[in-house]
Amino acid sequence: MRQKMKRLMGILLSLVLMLGLMPGMSLTALAYDGNPYASLVGTTNSVTFNGKPWYIIADNSTAVDAGTVTLLAADTSFGLSEFSDRYSNDYSISKVKASLDDLTTSGSFKDVADAIETNTDAGGKLYLLSTSEAQQLSTDVLKMNFSSKKGGAWWLRSPGGSQMAAFVYGENGNVNASGEIVDYEFGVRPALKLNLSSVIFSSESKTFSLAPEPPVAEEITTNAISVTARTGEEYSIDGGKTWVKAKSGESVVTFDNLKPATTYAIVARMAKTSGKKASPASEALNVTTREEEKTIVTPSIYLASHVENLGWDKKLTELAPGETVDVGTTGQSLRMEALDMVVPENYKVTGFAHIQNYGDTDVIHVNNPDYQVPEGYTVYRFGTTGRALRMEAIEIHLLDENGKPVEGFQYASHLQDIGWEGYVNNGSFTGTRHQSRRLEALRFAYPEADAADAQQ
């Protein structure tokens, strides 16, 4: 019984080996769950590497990022070439091999060459298939019609007859081991063995790349940027000088202590692990932090009035934001002759006072008033002193540091025989003309106050 069992196991093992060596079959590693290459190997469903389409013709992966897969060019973009210009079918000294070697040393595959293993049999990273390797593939995979003689033929590296090299009929995928003269121009269809520990595979786009996708911003504030933390990745905001991983249990990586309204370039890479180097950095995600919301601090304004028989007020009256103040007099039948407005140096006051006998007279800038001016402030004066002339009306334009009217600034006049008028807005006229009516007091509000308040 034991002898029969051994014989049966031997037969089954022989069948497995025979199937693995049959044309169109390949030995494939499927010894782990979630193998993303299993459904692609040996099919015409292409993947992308270095911007070109490829078929997976062999899968020797032991994990998504371990082992190798062998790729075969899936288009005609490598063009046509003579096999050799020496009438030799020795692949090691052939023209076509030299051109493929150039691609990985100084051409379009230079930057990805480290991710490609050298094929010791072919003697290069990009190489032509041998006759036996081609014969293990399906005709569907082998079909690739180049604009060449012999039915869209493309070269294999195996020698054929004298001064001949083997090739594949691109139209139907049949292998011609006898070959054709080496100075014919046939298609070039290289293969390569990709080291999975050096690349990243996207199952969605079916793309192998040396670097991950650019980071994705999650949240942006004035002084911080958060990006989505992806498995195995680390992130840098200083050009790769330092790298940051997500903390355990967190789904984002946050860079803080940043400057407002500043653009930062954030890159990602696969972090170094045991036996695997860190990947190259991704393309940068350029993110600009938000502008800092400016807190508008409305400064105080100071006022002084010059009144008939009384002269200047003994001290400046402060008009702070949210307050209402009066200057001048009421109930004493005294004319207001001048008004000084003391404002921050980056503010400006324009306008005029309507003065007895003179009419509208522009405000003037006063450099040396008779009182102490707060530091950082300057003085603008309406009206006159020493002439016994009444002000009858006033129009004030209070402008901020940007030259814009200060919002909420209002004022009202107290007039002879009339009393308080209602508030007018910044830049408006209050008082009378041509009535010989003295202006006795002014009330200022900062910010807006209801007009009814001025009637009290």
Short account of what is shown:
The protein is mainly beta and 456 residues long.
What are the main properties of this structure?
single chain, 456 residues, mainly beta, seven-stranded mixed sheet, six-stranded antiparallel sheet, 5 helices, 10% helix, disordered C terminus
Tell me about this structure.
- There is one protein chain.
- The protein contains five helices and 33 strands.
- The chain has helices at 2-21, 95-105, 131-135, 139-142, 149-152, and strands spanning 47-49, 52-63, 66-73, 80-82, 116-117, 154-159, 164-168, 175-181, 185-187, 191-195, 200-202, 207-209, 217-220, 225-228, 233-236, 252-255, 263-270, 285-288, 301-307, 311-312, 317-319, 323-328, 336-344, 348-355, 359-362, 364-366, 377-383, 391-399, 410-415, 419-420, 424-425, 429-431, 439-446.
- By secondary structure, it is mainly β.
Global morphology? rod-shaped
**Fraction of residues in helices?**
under 10%
Ends apart, CA distance between termini:
121 Å
Largest sheet: 7 strands, mixed
Topology record:
Layout: H1 2-21, E1 47-49, E2 52-63, E3 66-73, E4 80-82, H2 95-105, E5 116-117, H3 131-135, H4 139-142, H5 149-152, E6 154-159, E7 164-168, E8 175-181, E9 185-187, E10 191-195, E11 200-202, E12 207-209, E13 217-220, E14 225-228, E15 233-236, E16 252-255, E17 263-270, E18 285-288, E19 301-307, E20 311-312, E21 317-319, E22 323-328, E23 336-344, E24 348-355, E25 359-362, E26 364-366, E27 377-383, E28 391-399, E29 410-415, E30 419-420, E31 424-425, E32 429-431, E33 439-446
Parallel strand pairs: 1-12
Antiparallel strand pairs: 1-2, 2-3, 3-10, 4-9, 5-10, 6-7, 7-8, 11-12, 13-14, 14-16, 15-17, 17-18, 19-20, 19-21, 19-23, 22-33, 23-27, 24-25, 24-28, 26-27, 28-32, 29-30, 29-31, 29-33
